[in-house]
Amino acid sequence: MQLRVIDGASVRWLLSMEDCIATTRASMILVGDGGATQPIRTALQLPGETKLLGMMPGFTTDPRWLGIKLVSVFPDNFGTGLGSHQGMVALFDASSGSPVALVEGGAVTALRTGAASAVATDVLARPDAHSLGIFGYGEQAATHLEAIALVRSLDYAMVWGRSAEKAAAFAREQSRLRDLDVRVADSCEAVASSCDVLCTVTAAREPFLEGRWLRAGVHLNAVGASLPSTAEIDGEAVARSRFFTDFTPSANALAGELRRAREQGAVDESHVIGCIGDVLSGRVPGRLSRDDITLFKSLGMIAEDLLAADFVLRRAVELGVGALVDF
After folding, report:
1. Whether this model's pTM surpasses 0.90
2. Cβ atoms 129, 196 nearer than 8 A
């Protein structure tokens, strides 16, 4: 038996953001149609810290894979040369149970998380949305800027972060890489009041984006908070929005923003309209009017990882990429 091992550099070469948006869209439709089995993510959290080891097993019917992602989430890695998300996606043959491939998970996570927000933005944001506001300046900020620019024609982007110096460095680098006007904002409110699409991609533990700042017609991708104890947006932001998920059982269990809003009495169980796969398949409507505030709560799904890894593996076999290890 041989196991194909594919490193992060190869993942980035084999899987473009355009391709990842396509695989992520397919995974969302698959989930909405009931073609994936996804237990709620479990995590081992280091005592007294936000660092954790997450475990995401799953099964998909098309393509047919059994797999698991193991990923460490260490937000303090910013600036060290190590990603905040490191790990691996293991693919097993769903008929024999044999391990087939081990794909570097940091690159897959970075790409598919930005791609998920792009798919949600494409179906929920106003067609004429032309400006992007990003809260955060790490790896996910960069991949979100890349991904959103593929589904909307952007005139400019704005970035805010707790370090003005790091935000400015991010803006300079992305302006050069993307040939786009990327500006630094001096406050969260300035971003929220100036942009058509917003993405929160921080390691914040408490809300910093207030719902009262959201203007009519905005679309928000809430991405950074992935534990019940953390939240980037307040209850008013949740309550004012048409609220969509990637996978509703995960949102009910893990989305700190949604859980807090329910505990505060700001929303009830009926507030979640559906998952993005439901919108893509036409089961539930997305945006109903130009003035709707739409919100996508992203927690990540193993189906996204498995379909992205499947694409990488097929390309790797075709091109002879990856190390074959006797197993």
Report:
1. yes
2. yes
